[in-house]
Amino acid sequence: MKFIDWIKDFFGVDQSTVYINQQAQASQEVLLAIKDFAICSAINLIAGAISKCEFKTYLNGNEVKGDEYYIWNVEPNKNQNSTQFIQEFISKLLYYNECLILDINGQLIIADDFIQTEYAVFENTFSNVVRGTMKFDKTFKMSEVLYFKYSNNDVKRLLSELMNGYNNLLNMAIGKYKRSGGRKGTLHINSTALGDKNFQDNINNLMNNRFKSYFESENAVLPLLNGYTYNEQNGEGNKKSTSDMVDVAAIVKEQFDKTAQAFKIPPSLLGGDISDVDKITDNFLTFCIDPLADMVGEEGNRKRYGKSAFLKGSFIKVDTTCIKHIDIFSISESLDKLIACGGYSIDELREKAGDIPLNTDWSKKHWITKNYSDIQEAKGGEE
Question: Which NCBIfam families match (predicted)?
Answer without folding.
Answer: portal_HK97
